[in-house]
Design brief:
Elements (H helix, E strand, L loop, with lengths): L19 H18 L3 H7 L7 H6 L17 H14 L1 H21 L2 H12 L5 E4 L9 H4 L3 E5 L2 E11 L7 E8 L5 E7 L5 E5 L12 E11 L10 H36 L1 E2 L2 E2 L4 H29 L5 H25 L11 H13 L4 H13 L6
Parallel strand pairs: 1-4, 2-4
Antiparallel strand pairs: 2-3, 3-7, 4-5, 6-7, 8-9
Length: 393
């Protein structure tokens, strides 16, 4: 195997679990991110704009939908697709989130909940990235309690459905071609999934401004006002929140991988800076307290990566459970938050200047820590599994 090197943050060599063929895919992704994404990440983050010109290049990597079965391509392992998510987050958590929303949340909704006809209708264009997807679940008044408190309503009207309500924090929604909207059917009070296509009357997406994290991601406030979608756009396999949960279980584990990737990126920045920054006549990497920061970050990365690898193995074996997803998401993002603080401290005052990149990781960690279930909510899911008793309000 040539062209593939172990990352400095992969201290135990977990990537060696991949086959040579998988490593070749990963090396290709790594080169693209280093050549095309890394040089512009700070610029687009600062301007809070999305680099649309990168989409054809990402599509050309052949990694979209890699975890799904296709007539011309069998699915690849969850371990490989997870390492790809890590590579994205290691360079730019914003681009990792964009890719995760499209390739994970949106495509998985169609793949897991769509009919064969619906999969044929939408997935090929999403795989080629000719159509970009978004996922609309969170609402202005509902985050952690969205399972029981979904306010967006769907009403059947002949051969169409009428959607009314609002969504918030919906990544990619300002430019997405397809937005998966989860709404409560007023007839049976069950949550159902709908694909709202760009240009549908009654659908309005407005960019959320003044964000301090994942600024490159185009999050939107969505308003649905008498938005009429054909019954053919109702995902036939999405008939209760349990079906929504299938998608979230899959992607919550992916957030753990993004957290590991962001930790690795922060570690590499801090390590490199420490070896180059000279104080008191020697590189600060030679000071014990600086090495303590680096060792703490590296330990957090190693522990989190070990957990994430096991997550991928459980997913590949088809035995992954909600509480395991919750533990991975909660633990890895908590360690991320701690690690970027250590990394920023290594930079001293330079850590708050975007030129040194670490400030971007420091801020972005806050978003990964919060989305796909807060630490508290995920802790309660784990606690229920551990004790057999629910502590939810």
């Amino acid at each position: 195997m040539t062209g593939f090197e172990r990352l400095p943050g992969d201290f135990y060599g977990y990537a060696d679990l991949l086959s040579d063929e998988d490593k070749e895919v990963l090396a290709k992704v790594r080169r693209f991110l280093a050549d095309e994404v890394a040089p512009i990440a700070d610029e687009y983050w600062e301007r809070a704009e999305f680099p649309h010109h990168l989409i054809p290049g990402i599509a050309g990597l052949g990694i979209v939908g890699l975890g799904m079965d296709w007539p011309d391509r069998p699915r690849r392992s969850k371990l490989l697709t997870s390492f790809i998510a890590l590579e994205f987050a290691r360079v730019d958590p914003s681009m990792a989130t964009f890719f995760g929303v499209h390739n994970g949340l949106a495509m998985a909704s169609v793949d897991l909940c769509g009919s064969p006809e619906q999969k044929e209708r939408w997935l090929p264009a999403m795989r080629s990235m000719e159509q970009i997807g978004a996922f609309g679940l969170t609402e202005p008044h509902g985050g952690s309690d969205v399972a029981g408190g979904l306010e967006t309503i769907a009403r059947r009207d002949g051969d169409k459905w009428v959607l009314d309500g609002a969504k918030r924090w919906i990544g990619n929604a300002t430019f997405a071609d397809l937005v998966i909207i989860w709404a409560r059917d007023e007839a049976d009070d069950q949550v159902k999934g709908f694909v709202v296509e760009k240009g549908t009357p009654g659908f309005d997406a407005r960019k959320i401004e003044r964000k301090l994290a994942l600024r490159t991601v185009q999050n939107a406030d969505i308003t649905l006002t008498g938005c009429r979608v054909p019954d053919a756009n109702r995902l036939t396999g999405a008939n209760s929140f349990r079906d929504t949960g299938k998608v979230l279980r899959l992607t919550r584990g992916g957030v753990a991988w993004s957290a590991v990737g962001a930790m690795m990126g922060a570690y590499e920045l801090a390590r490199d800076y420490a070896t180059e920054r000279v104080q008191f006549g020697k590189p600060i990497a030679k000071f014990q307290l600086v090495q303590d920061h680096l060792a703490t970050i590296l330990s957090n990365v190693t522990a989190s990566l070990g957990m994430a690898v096991r997550v991928a193995q459980l997913q590949d074996n088809g035995v992954f459970r909600d509480e395991q997803a919750a533990m991975a998401k909660s633990f890895c993002t908590s360690r991320l938050r701690e690690s970027v603080a250590h990394a920023r401290e290594v930079f001293g005052g330079n850590g708050i200047v975007l030129d040194y990149q670490i400030g971007r990781f420091f801020n972005d960690a806050e978003a990964l820590y919060s989305y796909e279930g807060t630490r508290e909510m995920n802790t309660l899911i784990v606690g229920r599994a551990a004790t057999g008793m629910g502590a939810f309000v």
